[in-house]
Amino acid sequence: MMLGPVCQVSVVSVMMMLVLEPVPASEPSAAQIMPLTLEQCIHLAERNSLPLRIEEVNVQIAKAQLGGSQGKFDTVAFASYNYNKSIRPTASRLSTGNLFGPPSTTTVITGILDESHTVSGGFRGSLIGGGSYQADANWVKSDRAPVTFGQLNPEYSTNIGLSVTQPLLKGFGSTVSKADIIRADNAMQASAENLAATREARAEEVVIAYWNHYFANRNLGTRDFLVEQGNRLVAINQKKLDVGEMRRIDVVEAESTLATRTQERISAVNEIGRTADALKRLILPFESRDEWEVEIVPLTEADETPIEPPTWRRAARVALERRHELRRKRHQLDSDDVGILVAENAELPQLDLEASLRFNQLAGSKGKALNFDSDFYTIGAGVSLEVPLGNRTARYDLAAARLTKIRSLLEYKDLENTIIQEVRDAVRDVDNRQEQIVSASEAARLAKERWVAEQKRQEVGYSTTFQVRDAEAAWQEAEDAYLRALFDYQVALAALHAAQGTLLEEYGLLPAPAPKLEDRAGILFDS
């Protein structure tokens, strides 16, 4: 059976509305919905971000390396025991008388026994001025056989002493002796600054991801509204067609527009899923794969309130003081200065002062061997000089150290210029984005008024479907521009704070204090 044109259009309209009507999905449980403010998202990222955990471990490694470098000045205790036994052959001639001839001589070979037990011990270490010291004691027990007349056997000898070696030129000075410690400390401070810079960068990522998700939700609201209006327009046109007040082409155009708006809504739903996943990756710990199913509901609304951005000079002053990249570079410059000082010192001749004092005792019993007095001692002092001819290694090491400092200074200046450019761009963007919001908001308001007016005019027959669609497209374009201006403004504000190094403070997260060696934080330092 053939249907008439009116019936065909009615059936098509009903089928289109059924197809385009969104299918209700199962409602997520309360445990799957996570309403979050922007500040909460940043705090979650601080707690769960794996890159931040990696940087924190790097700081702990640097702290451990600093502690290890300080071991240079640890005192070393030493002790030893030696046992020696030797039997040396000795020859003697024995002459015997002979009544009937010349005396006979006999060679007799006997052994001389030497046996000793030696116990030594003491302490040695490095001095802050570049020298070294050693305090030691020695105890020796000697046994001999045969024993000559008047000789002690066993014989006990002891001595205690102190020796000091102090460089006077090469190797002299606390800075030279502590160079490795100073470098390790700068490395630890630089690692802490790198952690702070990573925190800032992560926070900026979260801000951008949050606003992406927020505006994706707002965009979906706009698409839902357009689909609702499209359904309404199709229904109105269908009624007019049924009573002969509208042509079929007007209904087809309305249905075509509705299909387009529905496709746009599907894309908007997909965009929400994409932006939500990007935000989840930054803030959730993912102890379970089910966390990917969590629905994040943004609670912080976009603030359109204009602010008075700082002048770029004022913002640049803050940035040059606060930006962690520059502070990290300053620690590198400190290490370069130490390297130059050490290289300059290495060019000097090796001139060392040596001094020692030792007390000795000798006795035939253990007890008396430990009774020292000032009658038996050894005192010594001397100077040793070593001059490398040519000294090319030291000279070229010094040249390399100075060139390294020049390179670091150039990198520092280039980084300063880069940061100033970022600050100028950020200040300019905030100012421009505020102006864009004002103009885009006004354009969206006027476009919506025109669209509403065209809809009312169509209801009374003074406007066509084409004019309504044109007004709707203009409003949609203006609304998209307004949402984009709002997004750009929020991102520009975050970029301004990030350029100054103040993003964490803006959201209630103060920079972590510089780590100290005595802070036993982290599982690596727990007993």
Kindly list the characteristics that best describe this protein.
527 residues; alpha+beta; six-stranded antiparallel beta sheet; two-stranded parallel ribbon; 12 helices; 8 strands; 56% helix; disordered N terminus; disordered C terminus
Concise synopsis of the structure shown:
The protein has 527 residues and is an alpha+beta fold. It is built from twelve helices and eight strands.
Structural class: alpha+beta
Order of helices and strands: HEHHEEEEHHHEHHEHEHHH
- Mean pLDDT score, rounded? 83
The N- to C-terminal Cα distance equals 89 Å
- Strand coverage percent: 15-25%
The total count of helices amounts to 12
Low-pLDDT segments: 1-31, 512-527
- Let me know the number of strands: 8
**Main β-sheet, in a few words?**
6 strands, antiparallel
Rg measurement, Å: 45 Å
Helix fraction bin: 55-70%
Global outline: elongated
Main sheet: which strands, in order across? 2-3-4-5-7-8
Secondary-structure topology with pairs:
Blueprint: H1 5-20, E1 33-36, H2 38-48, H3 50-69, E2 76-96, E3 104-126, E4 132-145, E5 155-167, H4 174-177, H5 179-242, H6 248-283, E6 295-298, H7 312-322, H8 324-346, E7 350-363, H9 366-369, E8 377-386, H10 392-459, H11 465-500, H12 503-506
Parallel strand pairs: 1-6
Antiparallel strand pairs: 2-3, 3-4, 4-5, 5-7, 7-8
Helix pairs in contact: 1-5, 1-6, 2-5, 3-5, 5-6, 5-8, 5-11, 7-10, 8-10, 10-11
